[in-house]
Amino acid sequence: MILRKLSVLKLTALMESYASNNNKGSLNWSVPRFIRRIKVPDYKDRAVFGVPLLHNVQRFGQALPQCIQRALAFLRRTALDQVGLFRKPGVKSRIQKLRASCENNPELSTFDDCTAYDVADMVKQYFRELPDPLMTMKLSDTYVGIFLYVPEDLRLQTLQAATMLLPDETRETLKTLLCFLSDVAARSGENHMNETNLATCFAPSLFYQQYGNLKTMTSASPKVRKQQKVPGVPIGRPDIKEMNENMASNQCLAFMIKQVKNL
């Protein structure tokens, strides 16, 4: 708690200093509130997908379900050389079968009849369907704001302060994912997936976006955007603010993957 209070002080000083000097004070950044918990959908009939990380800790003693941990281990062991890992889609029918196996057996350890792309797609879907994204609804704006307003030489310490404010189970899960993605990026000469490419694949799933009902608008097609008719967003295309924030979220995640050990 002492570390968190000090982190709040540092984060507030940095964000208010640089954010208020940009955009003529129009940034509505404020210290995130941690008292009220975010309501999540009912997940009582699920074991893995769409289940809060805290519930996993209470049930299994670990934030990430065993099947997701073993999926990451499987990919690290067998697939780091696969071209377009996380970018190339898997086969929908096999992914659905794999998801069902995980739901029925959260400690699933085998991935027979699946390709690396099937397993990678399932992992990406797991993070996309978390009730509260890894950067959390409360702190996503802060992470984005760091890359919109804070100078480059101060970003690492600002990110460290923000990350200290994440719930323990979320911070541990983020560390696990970033370390794994760093290993993938280290083999980018073979798999063509460097930090920037991986961030493009994962950022829409890890950051909460204000556009649309949740974080879906960032990856929605023009047809979907037209159907949703989000107030203030031009039909069929994002506005400048959204594009800048999407770019900042990608830059943030790419930086965190590259600097995970220092972070």
TrEMBL record:
GO terms for biological process: actin cytoskeleton organization; regulation of Rho protein signal transduction; signal transduction. InterPro entries: Rho_GTPase_activation_prot (IPR008936), RhoGAP_dom (IPR000198). Pfam families: RhoGAP. Residues 51-263 form the Rho-GAP domain. Gene3D superfamilies: Rho GTPase activation protein. GO terms for molecular function: GTPase activator activity. PANTHER family: CROSSVEINLESS C, ISOFORM C, RHO-TYPE GTPASE ACTIVATING PROTEIN. This is Rho-GAP domain-containing protein.
